[in-house]
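Could you help me review a protein record that somebody else here produced? This is what I was given.
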Amino acid sequence: MSDIPRRKFLKTASAITVAACTSNLALPKAAVGASSDDKVSMLIDTSKCTGCRSCMIACNDWNGLPLDVNKFHEVEEGQTRFSANRWVDVVFNRYNGNARSVQENWLYTRFSCMHCTDAACVKVCPVGAIEHSDLGTVDINPGLCIGCNYCIANCTFNVIGFDRARNVARKCTFCSDRLTQGMIPACAQACLPGAITFDSRKRIESIAGEDRGIKAERFDPG
């Protein structure tokens, strides 16, 4: 596998992503209300992701969202599609290993709200309906949202959907309701190849920096 297309994909589709979440093995104390030093994060390893879409189905199932028709390879590759009912998507990229290779290779990664440390959506919300939680996640309060769409227009990654029926913005919550119950996020639990890892932010940064034979890059939009 060529390192050039992999590196390019890591940069454009966030192959290894740091965002808010918790651990696959044991919830850090942040999940039960710890200090600001206990932020939690997510790491996604494209060398393990198979593009099975289990994370998407699990997200919709837990949050009671109707399932959209999965795009698979029917639209322009790498283009994500988010809506009021799609908070997690799987992006992909295909390439040949080298100039003489006829075998086509595929790279996949889970993609959703990045829960930025310096979030544009938080900055532009005129009513304070979007804020950072104690865990470091970026949460939307539907009771305060006035449906102005400023967050959607200013989101760096275009991952916020709009529910016209309820007139509110909606996006990935990283299953904050599950975290408070001592559970891991639905997408992580459903990931069959183990491509999604949750832990404290410090631990995730350490894991992402380890040499695994590929270039691990921290995606930190903040």
The radius of gyration is 17 Å. The CA atoms of residues 52 and 192 lie 9 Å apart. Residues 1-36, 211-222 have pLDDT under 50 and may be disordered. The chain is about 20% helix and 20% strand.
